[in-house]
What we know:
Elements: E1 6-9, E2 12-13, H1 26-33, E3 42-43, E4 66-69, H2 81-93, E5 98-103, E6 124-129, H3 133-145, E7 150-155, E8 175-179, E9 189-190, H4 191-204, E10 207-212, E11 216-219, E12 222-225, H5 228-237, H6 258-261
Parallel strand pairs: 1-4, 4-5, 5-6, 6-7, 7-8, 8-10, 9-11
Antiparallel strand pairs: 2-3, 11-12
Amino acid sequence: MTKSQWQTWNLWHGCHKISEGCRNCYVYRRDAKYDIDSTLVRKTKNFDLPVQKKRNGEYKIPAGTTVHVCFTSDFFVEEADSWRREAWEMIRLRSDLEFLMITKRIDRLNVSLPDDWGDGYEHVAICCTVENQDRADYRLPIYKAAPVKHKTIICEPLLERIDLRPYDIGSWVDQVIIGGESGNEARACHFDWVLDIRETCVENNVSFCFRQTGAKFVKDGRLYHLRRELQQSQAWKANINFNPEAGLPRRDQSHGSREDAGSRVQC
């Protein structure tokens, strides 16, 4: 997809930390520069963005756009419970868009779900973050059973080796995305951990994307410190993305375009 086909919809802002992956949250770091309290969850002026219209009556967000939802909060954060039904109604109404959300609160999916949700809306992808084995063991059984049409596991920030083999990901996961942690206080991501998850994805014929290295990256026993602008490009240079539909089972094969590397998530 081109950049013009992507839109961010931050309908509320703020969150509270619930696990190790939250420790060095980029939203907290950015808010701190402007003396904003990130723990206060509040609606934004873009709350109704998907249904806002231009003077000519057309929607501001055109049909076919992929909408990234709540990237400065969590769609399922407790403080937003009273607003979520209205948000779901806008999502239901705009079935001509694709909505993508990433959550650490998959255990709260059933709070305020629409009455017609069934086994999920076709145009909604909900991704689940697992940063270590503890959170994988807690969240993934819930995620596997959850009524969601399109499922992606996101191991970012990847804080330790995670074994996904017990979860039979080939039977229900569309994609796995890996990334290290950003910021000055980042914890190191190890290339061996990345390769181990990739191996599991190849074994299960699941799309794999190494999105970015993080600020501290360990490869062959050496610790590398990478500037923010290099973290994604260095991950791509590793040339390890795997797209089962393109038939890319080996590390030494070209990963093709960035669009090919992912299913519903822009990697």
